[in-house]
Write a structure and sequence with these properties.
By secondary structure, this protein is mainly beta. It has 1 helix and 31 strands. The strands form 8 sheets. The chain has a 6-stranded antiparallel beta sheet. A 5-stranded mixed beta sheet has the order 1-2-4-7-6, with no helix packed on it. It has a 4-stranded mixed beta sheet with strand order 3-9-8-5, with no helix packed on it. The two termini are 77 Å apart.
């Protein structure tokens, strides 16, 4: 009996020709198999010559695994592995002979792409955080058979793949000695960084992973156009020289459109600051307000506040951020004549989480009769008009003795007006 073998793609077919004697060598039935790394499964049909068969040996199951169902033999090659394995079959031929045959499987190596571990997205950082460094871990020339790519040099590179706005990060740099990526947060938004490993070979030379950097601002000044410009008026409210006979309820609306520097991020407000008015401001310290309450709220965007205080604060949106005694001061430091530094500072007892996508920001300050400061508080910088929605209203009562509940129950203020004090908000990331 002799055998011919026809190969159609990955299918090996054994064809019965004639009986001339016994089979004594593996080549009588199955030729040795040569494939490259990454080859598809190979199927071999044994039914033309065998009535039954089993796999009796496999010298390298880590390279190739064999599955015999009936008389259909399937060979599956492990990814990224190369080497040899001898497969042995024990079976009964159609002429009744019992034979054991072997054939050699060879998997030739090809270059594997280099590999490194997933780079997790760093936590949100502020645009003042300074240079940040990310490590590239698990860098190898390829994930295949140990030692088959020894001597290859893998080089890292990085590019800004995309940004929500230009300049989210600057100074992108790769250190191939320490296997690190460094960059400096510059402005609010998100930047996707592509890190590429290249082993310099002709085939499968590169491997790429992406990670996202999220940057938030440390401070936002509202209105934005007053950051570097002195306002055109001054404000006394809400921190007028109240003494013992005056109470105040005051609201200011800050449009969501003025918080684009947040880059669409949700952050928390930790501090609010004002600056002294340029020409008329002066140094003061120890201005003490007792029983003061400060609330922040997010409200749906609309053109302006309305005179009824409570209508501007829908139920469930208000958070108390300060309650008790507040001491204010300023050094009246000139930054750029006549503009002063934002050093009239209120550090919030409870930070306020703010998402501009949810609406505008409203701040309300209430100071009861007798809660005002006897220390002279110099005027604070303000603007007479601003963007749509930037405006305030106040209610100052000079007669009688009003407590906080009485202030709240006295619910109508003077006509709302555009403009108000220039305000600086300090933000921190939300974990």
């Amino acid at each position: 009996m002799s055998v011919t073998k026809n190969e159609f793609d990955n299918l090996v077919v054994l064809t019965y020709v004639q009986i001339v004697g016994e089979f004594t060598a593996a080549s009588d039935l199955i030729e040795d198999i040569l494939v490259a790394e990454g080859a598809p499964d190979r199927d071999i049909s044994l039914g033309a010559f065998f009535t039954s068969a089993v796999v009796s040996g496999n010298t390298n199951p880590a390279l190739v695994t064999e599955t015999l169902i009936g008389l259909e033999l399937n060979l599956s090659f492990a990814p990224d592995q190369n080497g040899t394995s001898t497969i042995t079959l024990l079976g009964t031929l159609t002429n009744g002979e019992v034979v054991e045959i072997s054939f050699l499987v060879t998997v030739d190596s090809i270059n594997d792409a280099p590999f490194f571990s997933i780079i997790n997205d760093p936590a949100l950082v502020l645009d003042t955080a300074g240079e940040q460094t990310v490590s590239v871990l698990g860098l190898v020339p390829g994930p295949g058979t140990a030692g088959d790519e020894t001597g290859q040099t893998v080089t890292l590179s990085a590019i800004v793949f995309s940004e929500t706005a230009a300049g989210v990060i600057t100074g992108l740099n790769v250190n191939n000695i320490n296997k690190t990526i460094s960059y400096t947060p510059a402005s609010a938004g998100e930047a996707v960084i592509a890190v590429v490993a290249d082993d310099g070979q002709n085939l499968n030379a590169t491997f790429t992973r992406l990670f996202t950097v999220t940057v938030g601002p440390e401070t936002v000044v509202v209105p934005n156009n007053a950051i570097l410009v002195e306002g055109d008026k001054f404000a006394g409210t809400p921190f007028v020289n109240l003494g013992d006979t005056t109470a105040v309820r005051w609201q200011q609306r800050y449009p969501a459109s003025e918080f684009t520097e947040l880059g669409g991020l949700t952050t928390k407000i930790t501090q609010i600051a004002f600056r002294p008015e340029g020409p008329g401001g002066g140094i003061f310290s120890g201005a003490t307000f007792t029983g003061i309450e400060i609330d922040l709220a997010t409200i749906s965007s609309q053109i302006a506040l309305v005179s009824a205080f409570d209508s501007n604060l829908p139920s469930g949106t208000v958070q108390r951020v300060y309650d008790g005694t507040l001491v204010l001061s300023t050094l009246n430091t000139v930054v750029d004549t006549p503009r002063k530094a934002f050093d009239i500072v209120i550090v919030l007892q409870t930070p306020f989480v703010y998402d501009p996508a949810a609406g505008d920001l409203v701040m309300e300050i209430r100071i009861p009769t007798g809660g005002g400061s006897s220390t002279v508080v110099s005027p604070i910088d303000a603007v007479s008009a601003g963007p749509a929605g930037f405006g305030g209203l106040e209610q100052t009562i000079n007669i009688g003795s009003l407590t906080i509940p009485q202030l709240i129950s006295t619910a109508t203020a003077s006509t709302p007006r555009l403009g108000g004090p220039v305000t600086q908000f300090t933000f921190e990331p939300v974990p």
